[in-house]
Specification:
The protein is mainly alpha-helical and 202 residues long. It has helices at 2-25, 45-177, 183-201. The chain starts with a helix and ends with a helix.
């Protein structure tokens, strides 16, 4: 609004100046004719003076009414551009910082996932080794128990065989001698048979 009023004042001053110039300059001197010289080559001190006055007034009016608002508008525009650039720079820095944070979080998540997978593999390997060890231990225990059972059965079989051999030997000896053996003879024959059987087993 103020800028429009300044333009209006300037326009009115210029119009008044053009209207007043011919009157202030005065009529041409006697004997002089305006048509003798071309309009561009005519020189009049009054016209020059008032032209300068009007020009100075125009500069003053423009300085107070037009230049200050124009400069103010340019300064506001410059501040707006500078603020926009600063805001854009701040937003770019913030975006770069957020991008770096997200990238860092992504790398950490990948590292954690890799660590979890590796831990799962280690746990699975430990479980496999433990199951293998337990199975081997159980198998060894079963084999040992079977060997003990076999040994016990072997010892029982040998003892039964030994007893049967003694009975058989005693029976053979009794028939061979055709007489009844005394307790001493029976014990002596038993010891001899045991000795012979031990030598055979060795």
């Amino acid at each position: 609004m103020r800028l429009r009023m300044g333009y209006l004042v300037v326009f009115m001053l210029v119009a008044i100046a053009f209207v007043a110039m011919p009157a202030l300059a005065g009529d041409p001197a006697p004997g002089e004719h305006a048509a003798d010289k071309p309009a561009l080559l005519q020189w009049d001190i009054g016209t020059a003076f008032w032209s300068i006055v009007v020009f100075v007034l125009l500069l003053l009016v423009l300085r107070t009414t037009a230049w200050k608002p124009i400069l103010l508008g340019l300064q506001q525009r410059e501040r707006f551009i500078a603020d926009s650039i600063e805001k854009a720079r701040h937003e770019r820095e913030q975006s770069e910082r957020l991008l770096a944070e997200y990238t860092d979080k992504l790398h950490k998540a990948r590292d954690e996932a890799t660590a979890i997978v590796e831990e799962g593999r280690r746990d699975a390997e430990e479980v496999r080794k433990r199951i293998h060890a337990e199975a081997k231990h159980e198998a060894d225990a079963i084999v040992a128990r079977a060997r003990r059972d076999i040994q016990i059965a072997r010892d029982d079989a040998i003892k039964q065989l030994h007893d049967q051999a003694i009975v058989l030997a005693t029976s053979i000896a009794s028939k061979a001698v055709k007489r009844d053996l005394t307790i001493g003879d029976h014990q002596r024959l038993l010891d001899e048979a045991l000795a012979d059987l031990s030598q055979l087993n060795n």
